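Hi C.,

You asked whether I'd gotten around to modeling the 214-residue construct. I have! Everything is below, sequence then structure, no commentary in between.
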Amino acid sequence: MRLVLPRLYVILDAALLTSPDTDCAQKLADTGVRLLQYRNKNASARELFETSKRLASLLVPQGVTFFVNDRADVAALAGASGVHVGQEDLGVEGARSVIGAGKLVGISTHNLEQFERAAATSADYIAVGPVFATSTKSNPDPVVGTSLIRQVRSLTDKPIVAIGGITLDRAAEAIGVGADSVAVISDILLAPDPAKRARQFIERLEAANHEAAV
């Protein structure tokens, strides 16, 4: 059965959090966010596990799908819903063998060739980006624009997640060219009120859904 992702996918990047991770996550869940990922590129394995376990035990019982970035082993031990891997991480099938049955695996892609390879794997969803210029990666890949999403949409029925520089004003554009979901980091985490900003995203994306259906 094809995975159906919520339109909004919030990535909790530890480097950008302005409040404790569980506080931020709970406020986002309260406002309707149902898809979250924890990313901490600088944490020790123990720190990543402890935080991921805390978040998983908080979010999963509330029906929130929770991913851990990069580490399939940590995601499995923490009780997360799944793992999101990049091009430099363990591959999709390797990650799936580690995280176990019934768990989800997503993968990042940055060009057509990577997307085609990902589409041939058992990945549950494929992220494409950076769609726009982004400041949350120290060495970002080249901006691919919405044109790549439009190009790859016909290559798979797997959900496509647009990532990179997604703002409130750009979110509907990414959905309009074929993305199933938009991954947002700084435009929500750095907002004065992240939960309020997330609610604005959800409302904007629901409106885009409605327009597409009319």
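If it helps when you're writing up: The first strand starts at residue 8 and ends at 13.

Thanks,
B.
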